[in-house]
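Researcher: Predict the fold of TadE-like protein.
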Amino acid sequence: MTRVAPITRLRARLERWARAETGTATIEFVILFPLVVSVMLMSFETSIIMARQFLLDRAMDISMRGLRLGTWPDIQHDEFKAIVCKQAAFLYDCENTLAIEMVPISKTTWNLPSEPPECVDRTETILPVTTFNQGPDNGLMMVRACLTVDPFFPGVGLGLKLDQAPQDGFYLTSTSFFVNEPGSGG
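Model: C-alpha cells for TadE-like protein follow.
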C-alpha cells in the first residue's frame, strides 16, 4: 500500500500537467515567430532589391540621354560606365560590379542577342569582355547593363529564383534602346 501512494501521486501530477493550459502561448510563439520574422525579412529584402533595380534603371536612363543626343560621339566603355555609376549614387562598388555592353541591332532581321548580358564574375580576376560598339548613323542600338549585388539578408533564401552570381550574389539587369542621331554614330 505504501507503493501505491507514490504512483497515484505521480499519476495525479501527470494528469494535472496534461490538463494545464500554462505555456500554450509559448507554443504558438515558437511556431509562428520564425514564420512572421522570415516574411518580414523577405519583404525588406524585396524592397532593397527593388530600390537597387530602380537606381540602376534611373542611372541608365539619365546616362542614355547623352548617347541618344550624340553628346559623346566616341565614348569608350569605361567612360560610359563611370557616367552610369556617377548617376547611381547608392549602388555599392558600382565601378567594379557593373558590366555594360552596347550592340547594334539589324533593322532587316530585328534579331536581339539571345544570350543573357555579360555580368561581372567576382571569383575571376579578369573581367569579361563586353561589346561596346556605337554603331552607324540612324542605327538602332541596344545597351544592356548588369550589376552584381549581394543580398541584404543572405540566409533568408529569397534569391532562389534570381540569377545567381558566384559568391552568394545575384544579378540586376537594365536594358535600353536608342537610335543614333545622324552624324553622331561611330
